[in-house]
Amino acid sequence: MNNTKPAAKTADMRNVGIIAHIDAGKTTTTEGILYRTGMKHKIGAVHDGEATMDWMKQERERGITITSAATTCFWKDKQVNIIDTPGHIDFTVEVERSLRVLDGAVVVFDGKMGVEAQTETVWRQANKYKVPRLCFVNKINQTGGDFYKSLESIRAKLSKKAWPIHLPIGFEQSIRGLVDLIGMKAYVYENYADKELVETEIPADMAEKAKEARAQLIESAVAEDEEIMTKYLEEGEDSLSEAEIKQALRAATLSGEYYLVSGGDGRGVIVEKILDLMVDFLPSPLDGKEIAGTHPKTGETVTRTPEASQPLSALAFKIATDPFVGKLCFVRVYSGVLKSGSYVLNVSTGDKQRIGRLVRMFADKREEIDQIGPGDIGAVVGLKDTFTGHSLSDINSPAVLESIEFAEPPVSIAIEPATKADQEKMSLALQRLAEEDPTFRVSVDDETNQTIVWAMGELYLEVIVDRMKQEFKVSANVGKPQVAYRETIKKKGVEAQGKYIRQTGGRGQYGDVWLRLDAQEPGAGFEFVNAIKGGVVPAEYINAVKAGIVEAMNRGVVAGYPVVDVKVTLYDGSYHEVDSSEQAFKIAGSIGFQEAAKAAQAILLEPIMKLEVVTPEDFMGDVIGDINSRRGRIESMDDKLGAKVVTAFVPLAEMFGYTNDLRSLTQGRASSTLELHNYQEVPESLAATVAHKTKGAAV
Q1: Nearest to residue 324, comparing CAs of 369, 371, 386, 368?
Q2: Which of 192, 208, 264, 495 could be stapled to 270 by a disulfide with Cβ–Cβ 3.0 to 4.6 Å?
Q3: CA–CA separation, 54 vs 67, rounded Å?
Q4: Distance of CA 494 to CAs 336, 518, 532, 565, 598, Å?
């Protein structure tokens, strides 16, 4: 039952992400969509390892989504490119880069839990990229599932502008359909696997409720369309046709601050209504109209529109290693046409590259295509030296598109090959894995010569080690997870001299600089200011000074960890006409930074995690006591559908192995989510211990 078709016109495309908290039912909902659009013979169960979108072995073993999977299906003459994203915070990079290139999203909620911790995270990510979205309350047909309580949760925690477009018929296991508030019709089924929905009249006991909900829906939407609002105010709700109501709802949804809410069982025939909402209310690439970039040489703003006649402009948003075809580079084409056999410019690197095979993805399967048109998503096979965030352009009309920013990974482990034969294979495996994910970093400790890998969490590191073994046949010995500490300074206006003089016969070395250090706000990063006047430090040595400062920042001054959030001003110095060199000024910059940082009260920072624990009330005391013992600070305690929710901030150093400890503490009945919140100063009593353990380590 293959429902593949030629690519649709740009106006008939929908690029949609499925995003949610872990276990809300994203992948199951996507499976239901693939089944209903004819892309699958049956709905694969995630817990049985049968889900099409969870195609990696590690995903099927763990029953979670690890890497975002792209697939294409067709519904009512519209092409829907769907990306099913992970819910676990360790793989949040997959959500981030997917939202960067998508036009719309469906946020899936667990109807038994409402808004959960990771739901808020993905919602913020969607806000960041201004992605219009729909809400689907899943699992309301299960015990504890409640559409209306979940709606309250969405309005309380995410947006007051969330309005039901469908009302469920029935409650929990008796759910058997929904009321469509636009057409004021009911759609029912006997069994979730029914072939089709049956249109019928609204049940008598829901008539008044539906009428009231419809009035609220229309009143809230008409404000986005002046003409329709005027008609509504002058002639009333009954004067509006279904087409006008849909027009107003679409305009409201496209604003990115108005959210239509539906609900049901993501496995069942009800997903047809989600598909209807996708094609009716989420944007096509044309609704975004222009995308702005910059010219790589002039820095001028360059605009592109999603038309085939425009110069090519595309963004690489994901790199994956396919076991059959090798490296796949996923791209979103914003303008022009990407053709097989053509040459393009990687504007981010300046390299000219030839486009080989192009494929359209159906999760882990692929279909050869000749081109990817404006607004469409596809993959290039074997594209070298192109990575996440790189811009591809017409050679004669380059434009750098806004790239994708990623958080620094807070966890590391030491890893070494089990045998000499594994050495080369391990290097290759780590290189490939680092190409796939910008939040996965690899470095070598200069003193111990150990390979250190950095990632977003413990689970991520587990998966990386497993993938090395399964995909690359590498056996490795792995150390315990370590915390990625950072360093910063507390004072402003601290000045110090960095002077390097060596005379060993013949030409010597001379570099002399004066630096001023200022502490910056958390997250502000590193800023270098060249305030040299009168050429006391020649222009050709300025970059060398900066390089020396950056090198010293990477080595740290307290415990060997990178220094962050510092402004460094180079304001004075001197040089020698014969003995000065770039190397001498680089060393002088490094010395000056170290001296100034020590005087500026350098401190150690540790990652603080936001922890949310959902637990039965019986175990509340034990859970809170355990959090307190981990240097945690309780932020709030709330009730949620028969359980208690504890939110706290806890240092990452105290959280390794927490999932297993929580299971033991609560007889396996509690669950938790953890995400990076910020970096805070390590207590003085612990800072000395950390410094003693790690002083001199290269990170």
Answers
A1: 368
A2: 264
A3: 8
A4: 53, 7, 17, 15, 10
Between the alpha carbon of residue 93 and those of residues 53, 321, 343, 370, 406, the distances in Å are 17, 17, 29, 30, 7
Residue type, 262: S
Helix (H, G, I), strand (E, B) or coil at 434: helix
- Candidates 73, 55, 64; CA nearest to 3 is 73
Q: Which of 511, 522, 630, 637 is nearest to 572 (CA)?
A: 511
Element (H, E) at 302: strand 301-304
Q: How much is the pTM? A: 0.71
Instruction: State yes or no: pLDDT of 46 exceeds 60.
Output: no
Of 67-81, 153-167, 612-626, where does mean pLDDT reach its minimum? 67-81
Say how far apart CA 682 and CA 653 lie, in whole Å: 10
Task: Say which residue the tokens 């920013």 belong to.
Answer: 405
Secondary structure element (H or E) that encloses residue 73, with its range:
strand 69-75
Given a cut of 90, is residue 528 above it in pLDDT?
yes
β-bridge mates for residue 13, sequence order? 79
Greatest Cα pair distance in the chain:
101
User: Residue 339 has which token pair?
Assistant: 């053709």
Residue 435 or residue 130, greater confidence: 130
- Per DSSP, the three-state class of 474 is coil
What number of residues does the chain have? 699
- In the numeric block, the tokens 């690439």 are attached to 285
Q: Are 273 and 166 in contact (CB under 8 A)?
A: yes
What are the phi and psi torsion angles at 54 (to 5°)? -95, 80
Going by the DSSP 8-state scheme, the letter that residue 613 receives in this structure is E
CA distance 461 to 458: 5
Beta bridge pairs of residue 292: 303
